[in-house]
Specification:
The chain is of the alpha+beta class. The protein is built from four helices and three strands, in the order αββααβα. α1 runs parallel beside α3, α2 packs antiparallel against α3 and α3 packs antiparallel against α4.
Length: about 150
């Protein structure tokens, strides 16, 4: 995992830059008409505003999940695809956890205009893509999910 941690750091940096730019938005901006735009939202919850108003709890929970995942996934013979997926998810989780713990909310900025959908951010994108990639890895390469000593 050490060789791919730069991916998580790049995701985190991209998320931080996007959020720094988003806080400068004074009004919604259309990027692609009827498809996607930018609108600043401060989300105190998690996906779909679940558990709104509990950012510290969610931030601490996020860090606990990250630590548990790191401890549980040591010793697995992951290929580059799976390691990339893990780093995407890690970078996204860290991006939102940092917001929750430092600001008390997550900065969201991307708005789907074609249909009703919650406003989201770069961290959410990488977290979602990373999780989808992990599901693919579990289905296509289950052998990766066995520790090198043969245990699960």
């Amino acid at each position: 995992m050490k060789k791919t941690v730069w991916i998580a750091l790049a995701v985190l940096a991209l998320d931080r830059v996007a959020k720094l730019l988003a806080v400068r938005l004074t009004a919604p901006v259309t990027l692609i008409p009827s498809v996607i735009g930018l609108r600043l939202e401060k989300n105190t919850g998690m996906a779909f505003s679940l558990l709104s108003g509990m950012p510290w709890l969610l931030g601490i929970f996020s860090l606990a999940v990250i630590a548990a995942a790191f401890l549980l996934l040591r010793g697995y013979p992951f290929r580059t695809f799976t390691l990339t997926a893990l780093m995407f998810a890690l970078g996204g989780a860290l991006g939102n956890a940092i917001d929750r713990l430092t600001a008390g909310y997550v900065i969201d900025m991307f708005e789907i205009l074609a249909f009703r959908f919650p406003v989201f951010n770069v961290a959410d994108i990488f977290l979602t893509v990373g999780c989808a990639m992990l599901v693919w890895s579990l289905i296509r390469h289950p052998e990766e999910w066995r520790k090198q000593d043969g245990t699960r």
